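User: Here's a structure from my thesis project, written as structure tokens. My advisor, Dr. K., wants to see whether a designed sequence matches the one we expressed. Can you design one independently, without my sequence as a hint?
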């Protein structure tokens, strides 16, 4: 189901989706209120919604959907200025799963990349199960797991987190729970449509006690800071432990790639790395996680029940790249425990 107050945008989106034989547009609406009235009848697998709409905007619509007819929502928005970006990530906090840029090239051939991105995102979201209020797993780690943490691993000098679909919400859950005196730097790689990472960083900074910024070449990560890989750049480390942002080729179709960053950190920091692989489709991060484990670092994957898309963590578990599998609500405290002076 497509929801947008621009009839031209609806036409463009329908045209883009017409190339996918496994996707059917069951209906369209010009605002959230109209869409809510159509939902029980149309019963779509996925909803694509704009942010700014008259009568009922995307935020009110998302909250209503998640409380009455919960299902995956893809936010399709113009890439906005940082000052307006809060609206997009508030939608994701309210229950929307992912975001992508609204097509701006009409029906020209230049929109081909957007075409495939939209189709791929809808295919991924069609398999996502969402619940009212999105309940979270609260299972406890076992005493054996806690013993492994305390006795078998060096205190990390640096930490890393990789995420894809569902990642912004998971990162918010983890990063906002970390104390202001957190003693090691954290490197984050999040797959997100180009143009939205600045808004993501701004949104996270609002409620996080640590400073969040984009990585810059030549910079050494400092305790109390969180660094995100910039759009369309690979984030690696040189022998002096400085961050290096490059135009190196994509890895497994990704730039930034979680595995590229994880592998570089394993090379430079050895056993003194703790890495976490969160929700997402595919296998990016798995090779890097395995390298960190082989170098003696600590590796953690998000569990199935708390993952929006149990893809990357599942592959990591299957390939024995993880030492711990934790629910999202346990990850922040685990990082605090690992970083504590021994």
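Assistant: Designed independently from the structure alone:
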């Amino acid at each position: 189901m497509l929801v947008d107050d621009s009839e031209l945008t609806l036409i463009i989106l329908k045209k883009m989706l017409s190339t996918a034989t496994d996707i059917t547009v069951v209906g369209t609406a010009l605002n959230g209120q109209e869409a809510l009235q159509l939902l029980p009848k149309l019963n779509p697998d996925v909803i694509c919604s704009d942010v700014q709409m008259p009568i009922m905007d995307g935020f009110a619509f998302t909250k209503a959907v998640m409380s009455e007819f919960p299902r995956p929502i893809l936010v399709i928005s113009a890439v906005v200025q940082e000052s307006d970006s809060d609206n997009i990530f508030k939608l994701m906090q309210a229950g929307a799963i992912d975001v992508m840029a609204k097509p701006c090239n009409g029906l020209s051939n230049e929109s081909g990349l957007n075409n495939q991105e939209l189709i791929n995102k809808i295919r991924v979201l069609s398999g996502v199960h969402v619940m009212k209020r999105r309940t979270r797993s609260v299972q406890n780690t076992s005493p054996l797991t806690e013993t492994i943490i305390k006795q078998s691993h060096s205190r990390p000098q640096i930490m890393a987190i990789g995420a894809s679909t569902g990642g912004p919400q998971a990162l918010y859950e983890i990063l906002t729970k970390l104390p202001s005196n957190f003693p090691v730097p954290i490197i984050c790689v999040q797959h997100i449509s180009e143009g939205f990472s600045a808004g993501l960083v701004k949104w996270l900074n609002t409620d996080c006690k640590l400073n969040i910024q984009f990585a810059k070449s030549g910079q050494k990560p400092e305790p109390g800071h969180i660094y995100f890989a910039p759009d369309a750049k690979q984030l690696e480390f040189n022998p002096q432990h400085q961050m290096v942002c490059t135009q190196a080729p994509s890895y497994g179709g990704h730039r930034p790639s979680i595995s590229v960053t994880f592998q570089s950190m394993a090379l430079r920091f050895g056993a003194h790395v703790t890495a976490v692989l969160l929700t997402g489709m595919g296998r990016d991060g798995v090779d890097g996680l395995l390298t960190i484990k082989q170098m003696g670092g600590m590796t953690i994957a998000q569990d199935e029940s708390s993952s929006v898309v149990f893809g990357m963590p599942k592959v990591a578990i299957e390939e024995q790249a993880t030492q711990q599998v934790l629910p999202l609500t346990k990850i922040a405290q685990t990082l605090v425990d690992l970083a504590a002076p021994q």
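When you compare it with your expressed construct, this may help: The chain has two domains: 2-125, 143-339.
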